[in-house]
Specification:
Shape: elongated
Helix content: 55-70%
Number of strands: 0
Function: Hydrolyzes the sphingolipid ceramide into sphingosine and free fatty acid.
Radius of gyration: 18 Å
Structural class: mainly alpha
Oligomer: single chain
Main location: membrane
Number of domains: 1
Largest sheet: none
GO cellular component, one term: endoplasmic reticulum membrane
Protein name: Alkaline ceramidase
Catalytic activity: N-(9Z-octadecenoyl)-sphing-4-enine + H2O = sphing-4-enine + (9Z)-octadecenoate; an N-acylsphing-4-enine + H2O = sphing-4-enine + a fatty acid; an N-acylsphinganine + H2O = sphinganine + a fatty acid
């Protein structure tokens, strides 16, 4: 829980179900948790570069998917820590679930037979993602 001396900021009072240990709007009027927000750059900039290089080098699409998933996690977390709004909290948490599902499928891709698709695993991962999203 954040300290009681939180300031009112641009995004108004927090509506998220949790807050971290950083004083809200202490560094910037526009960013609720400044350092948590800025620290997400490591989840945004390098994966964007990796996705660009993956595309340029013509690597398998699973690598591109993995980099884009990391970017989505970083952007969602950036938005959440910047605003501390419930909707942005979902934008932070749900991409983590989806990304993990993509990574699990990417791991399967490492050990599959050529030109095969594991529909059972795809169905299981999509179903899991949908159920978590609904709950």
């Amino acid at each position: 829980m954040a300290p009681a001396a939180d300031r009112e900021g641009y995004w108004g009072p927090p509506t998220s179900t949790l807050e971290w240990c950083e004083e809200n709007y202490a560094v910037s009027y526009y960013i609720a948790e400044f350092w948590n927000t800025v620290s997400n750059l490591i989840f945004i900039l390098p994966p964007i570069y990796g996705a660009i290089q993956t595309y340029k080098d013509g690597l398998e699409k699973r690598y591109l998917a993995a980099y884009l998933c990391l970017t989505a996690v970083g952007l969602g977390s950036w938005c959440f820590h910047m605003t501390l709004k419930y909707e942005m909290q979902l934008l932070d948490e749900l991409p983590m679930i989806y990304s993990c599902c993509v990574f699990v499928y990417c791991l399967y891709e490492c050990f599959k037979y050529k030109n095969t698709v594991n529909y059972a695993l795809l169905f299981l991962l999509v179903t899991y993602s949908v159920v978590v999203s609904i709950v």
